Amino acid sequence: MGMTAESFKRRDETEANKHNKYNQTMKGRHLHMIAIGGSIGAGLFVGTGSALRRGGPASLIVDYSIIGVMMFNVVFALGEMALMYPVSGGFYTLVTRFVDPSWGFAMGWNYFLQWAVILPFEIVVASFTINYWTEGSVSPAIFMAVFLVALTFICCFGALGYAEEEFWSSFLKLSAIVTFLIIGVVLVCGGGPDTGRYNEFWGNRYFQDNGGFKNGFQGFCSVFVTAAFAFAGTELIGLAASESKTPLLTLPSACKQVFWRVTLFYILSLTFVGLLISADDPDLIGGNAFANSQASPFVLVGKYAGLFGYDHFMNVVIMISVISIGLSGVYGGSRTLTALAEQGYAPKFFDYIDKTGRPLYSTILILVLGLLAFAGVDPVNGVELFDWLLALSGLAALFTWGSICLAHIRFRMAWKRQGHTLDELPFHAALGVTGSYIGLGLCILVFIAQMYVAICPVGGGDDGSIYNSPEGFFKTCLAFPVVIFFWVAGYIWKRPTFLTIDKIDVDSGRRDIDWALHRQIQEKRANASFFMKIIYKLF
Question: Key word Membrane present in the record (predicted)?
Answer without folding.
Answer: yes
